[in-house]
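Journal club prep, notes for RB
We'll compare a predicted complex against what the paper describes. Inputs for the zinc ion case:
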Amino acid sequence: MRLFGCVCGQFHSPGAGLGMSAERVSVPVPFYVIEHADGVALFDCGLPTSMLDREESYLKVLQAQEMDVTLTPDETVASHLARLDIDLAKVRYVVVSHLHFDHAGGLKDLPNATIVVQKREWEAGFDRDVANHYGLRKRYFDWGHDALQVHGEHDLFGDGSVRLVPSYGHTPGHQSARVRSAAGDHILVGDACYHCEVVETRRFPEFSDHAAMNASLDRLLALRDPGTVMVFGHDPAQWGAEPVLPSARD
Ligand SMILES: [Zn+2]
């Protein structure tokens, strides 16, 4: 089984919103490709391809709040999968850590996949008040896919290679994944922790449930074995010159 990590654009924001001390920061938007004998699964699927258009309406909303994203044609989910020679139509599962647009945005391009989501996240996405509070935008995830709603831990392929682990708090039903592949043992943390400094500082975003995030992060850290690599949600240090995971076959 192989695990790849692909960067689908950059998110730009005041540093404080991401728990960073610089005034403005730019962070990567990664998603992951798991190539298993029983099918291809993605963990998250990056930004909406519609954001290639600088006039996209939600981009305007973000810009009004001092945020922005940039995405180039070679960073879309379609471009990354084409380079890996994986047919978009054959992706079996898209596990979404949560329903923010920078994690579920690629769903539109993955028409035949089953979404694998925590039940409480899916319900939050369709509850108008909760969705508004957490910024879960239906237009980026409500495309009529089959949705496998799981509650708590879930063994995706039934062989222990990909275990979904609830890590609630960033959003009501956020989840992470532990992936044991040829490259070792990785915990795909998602936005349960934006980057490595937050492990110490616990500077979580304002909208999130901080008590739940603290407990979730403690639980994820406790899962580590000596060789386990934590791959954080938006850590610039993990996607620079030496990315934590390859995005292409060698
Ligand atoms: Zn995010």
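Talking point for the session: The longest strand covers residues 2-14.
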